[in-house]
């Protein structure tokens, strides 16, 4: 069966990620993927347990891709430059790969990613950007949550076409990132 249509876990995951970018992660189904490969749904179950596993694998793939983009963006930078590069890479990935990005926002069972470092890496990258601001716990966690929620909120509204104003979203984005830098620089004790 593995030879049938060349099905492998990796091919299924990549096909699911591409489908998610086209139609949304919530519309990725075993049936939709089976049609794409020209096989019956049952052909998938010798490779993956269920739809949840497929979506989890897409989330992990996307997190890894996003981590690579973020790491490349912040390499050799600190402070405002690192924050801006991180923010821009985050936004670019989310807008370029909307289905994959949505998968990174799914609640995952810790047992599903216990054997991978990908989620820990995303925290490390965020903390690397925050290092310049010399925040101790719990302020560092609070600041990381501020960045994630600000980025996610802005990107979600932007992707939905919710910024219907003559000022470009890109201009607002730059001002928000600058504002975040100033806030982090003067984070209350």
Automatic annotation (TrEMBL):
Pfam family, one: TetR_C_33
Keyword Kinase part of the UniProt annotation: no
Gene3D superfamilies given in the database record: Homeodomain-like (1.10.10.60), Tetracycline Repressor, domain 2 (1.10.357.10)
Domain HTH tetR-type intervals: 6-66
Keyword annotations of the record: DNA-binding, Transcription, Transcription regulation
Residue ranges of DNA binding: 29-48
Presence of keyword Transcription: yes
Protein name in UniProt: TetR-like C-terminal domain-containing protein
């Amino acid at each position: 069966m593995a030879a049938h249509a060349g099905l492998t876990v990796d091919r299924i995951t990549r096909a699911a990620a591409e489908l998610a970018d086209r139609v949304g992660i919530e519309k990725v189904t075993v049936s939709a993927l089976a049609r794409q490969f020209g096989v019956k749904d049952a052909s998938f179950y010798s490779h993956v347990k269920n739809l949840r596993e497929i979506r989890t694998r897409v989330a992990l793939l996307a997190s890894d891709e996003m981590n690579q983009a973020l790491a490349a963006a912040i390499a050799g930078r600190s402070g405002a430059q690192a924050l801006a590069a991180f923010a821009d890479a985050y936004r670019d990935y989310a807008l370029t790969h909307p289905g994959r990005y949505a998968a990174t926002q799914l609640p995952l069972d810790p047992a599903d990613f216990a054997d991978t470092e990908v989620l820990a890496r995303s925290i490390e990258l965020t903390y690397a950007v925050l290092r310049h601001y010399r925040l101790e716990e719990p302020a560092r966690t609070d600041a990381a949550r501020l960045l994630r929620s600000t980025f996610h909120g802005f990107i979600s509204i932007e992707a939905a076409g919710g910024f219907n104003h003559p000022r470009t979203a890109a201009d607002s984005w730059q001002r928000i990132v600058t504002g975040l830098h100033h806030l982090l620089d003067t984070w209350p004790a």
